[in-house]
Automatic annotation (TrEMBL):
It comes from Microbacterium pseudoresistens. GO terms for molecular function: DNA-binding transcription factor activity; sequence-specific DNA binding. InterPro entries: AraC_XylS_family_regulators (IPR050204), DUF6597 (IPR046532), Homeodomain-like_sf (IPR009057), HTH_AraC (IPR018060), HTH_AraC-typ_CS (IPR018062). Keywords: DNA-binding, Transcription, Transcription regulation. Coiled coil: none annotated. SUPFAM superfamilies: Homeodomain-like. It comes from the Bacteria. Residues 178-257 form the HTH araC/xylS-type domain. The keyword Lipoprotein does not apply. This is AraC-like DNA-binding protein.
Amino acid sequence: MIDATRGILYPARLPEFHRLPAPAEAAELVAWFWIPEWNLDPGRSSRQEVVSYPALNLVVQAEEGASLAGATTRASHRDLVGRGWVVGALLRPAAVAALIEDPAALVDAERAVDEPVLRTAVTAAMAAGEGHRERAVEEFAHWLAARVGTVSEPARHANAMADLLMMDSSVRTPAQAAARLAVSERTLQRMAHRHVGLSPAAMIRRRRLQEAAQRVRDDHSVDLATIAAEYGFADHAHLSNEFRTALGFTPSAYRSGVRSSGAPLAP
């Protein structure tokens, strides 16, 4: 099941945002597709702040073309102005090897990729009227499946690794993940480095931070010490330190900011 807002720090500020499942032909390559669309009045902007999943994204934009964005170690933002859209694919490890040799070199960075066929197909789909998002996803998935080709068993094993580290809240240490995958911790480290560019511990920290941030945002009745304990932080101070390091503010400041962020647009 796709969580529509996990990783998005201020959902109320989104003009329009969709997460769509990958078609069957790309199910081993893409966790989901994400599509923001906006049409803002002149002089207005919408700041989108996210704490991204520990994965790479392949992104198509009408004006900028296609780009590959690496995994991140901190929150990021983009200020939307005018009118536009983005179609992004949250890549599973099985797709990464076909697109980049060393994903660690792209951590906290983004680079343009010369894929005019992909850009043309997605742009045409986004201009197609009703059902445009679904058509864009179909075109994107078809292109990516052809680019990657047959998915190998090692690639499927890397997908299983990412699923555990990114999505399974019961996995709190690399040792637990290695045991579940029946590999050594050293092998787990190599798999994560080759397919994501981050360490297993960093991937777990990112998932845990996303989960805690979502709980802080959505459930104001629960105190922060309780949230820290629920998501494996040593105490409230540990949770606050992780927030400051990755997001630049404390959990209490974030909760206050969410409460006051009802207006979606900023001058």
